[in-house]
Amino acid sequence: MSGFRKEPLVCIRGLSKQYVQRRPLTSAKFTIRAVENVDLTIQRGGTLALVGESGAGKSTVVRCLSLIERPTAGEIWFDGVDVLKLRGKKLLPLRRQIQIIFQDPTSALNPGMTAGEIIAEPLVIQGEGTKSERRHRALELMEQTGLPAKWESKLPLEFSGGQRQRLAIARALALQPRLLILDEALSGLDLANQEMILRLLADLQAMHSLTYVHVSHDLRMVSDLADEVAVMYEGRVVEQKRTAELFAHPEHPYTQDLLDAMPSLESICEERSA
Known about the structure:
- With 274 residues, the chain is α/β, with parallel strands linked by helices.
- The protein contains eleven helices and ten strands.
- Helices cover 37% and strands 26% of the residues.
- The strands form two sheets. The protein has a six-stranded mixed β-sheet, sandwiched between helices.
- Helix 4 (115-126) crosses helix 5 and helix 4 runs parallel beside helix 6.
């Protein structure tokens, strides 16, 4: 678990996101309230786990935080800046600072590009460095994420699932972000790969002074990684506490349900030995 500071990097206040949909074969419209009045604080240099079942609104929150989508209402403050007031070129510095890693690295990586090209691509888009400097940065990040530099010419499909997720992490780090969002980034991996990636993320956090938002439906997975846990239920944050406190003293019934659903130590050991 990372060092924990009191000064927040991100403050989200009253965040809501609605989608207007049209009913099939009619002109009637209806509104889906995906997220409603969410408040979150993300501490600088720490890890916040955002947990809840599918459809709880977790991914919607982080898509708004990364400005992939704009919320219907609310405020998002990043290092003291009201980011929802930024437009056009003023958004570019912020987009460098917030990077997101998705569940399926295969769909997020260009199958026709080599590993080295994939990692260097954000630098190309931003016009940073010479070709030689970008290659050097890509090789450096491959080594940091546990990928041998000699694999720089491999295509994504030549990597295993865990290796592709390492490749996605390396690309996300290319622009030296301050906030890294992992949207169910480990849920598609087996238990052994999950544990290896979690150790890697802890090392990278210390190396690069990163702040993490770890989105998951699995409290077990985030129990050793997160400084704080925020529990989402039906589009709302129903509880946010330090991890140890939440595990010891859950207040909301849904949080208790999640804790009760966690696998026991015996079942985890059985899974590892299977």
